[in-house]
Amino acid sequence: MPQIAPFPGAGVDRTTGKVISGWAHVVQSICVIFTTCFGERVMRRWFGSFVPNVLGRKMVPSTVLKFWTAVCVAIDLWEPRYRVTQITPFGDPDAMRLGSLGWQIDGIYMPRGHLGDFTPERGVRTVRFTRSDIGLTVTP
Hints:
Blueprint (H helix, E strand, L loop, with lengths): L10 E2 L6 E2 L1 H13 L16 H4 L6 H18 L3 E9 L2 H5 L4 E8 L15 E8 L2 E5 L1
Antiparallel strand pairs: 1-2, 3-4, 4-5, 5-6
């Protein structure tokens, strides 16, 4: 008999294979959304974001604006448990000159948002993304 997740909103951790839920599942979901292009998934071609399309372009104000817009739209479309309130860039100026920019997303976490209950949890939740040798590094 297959094991049923303890409650809705649970999933499988991409690295360990264990059941995850809550905030950890939201962070993993955001990473999947940001690393998936529209049309990339065969049976879910409508899923994804424009984030990968903007990566690797010249870091000028218009590109940064497109990137942040892609981030906000992707979260708004695909992650009902999180609402972005602020995006802040961070990083070493030398790394930024080489095209590496980290960003911090602050937002409101709604644990039951995927069920239609948009009652926020107290406080702001933050996710930090940085570029590393292995790809995208996420710090919840």
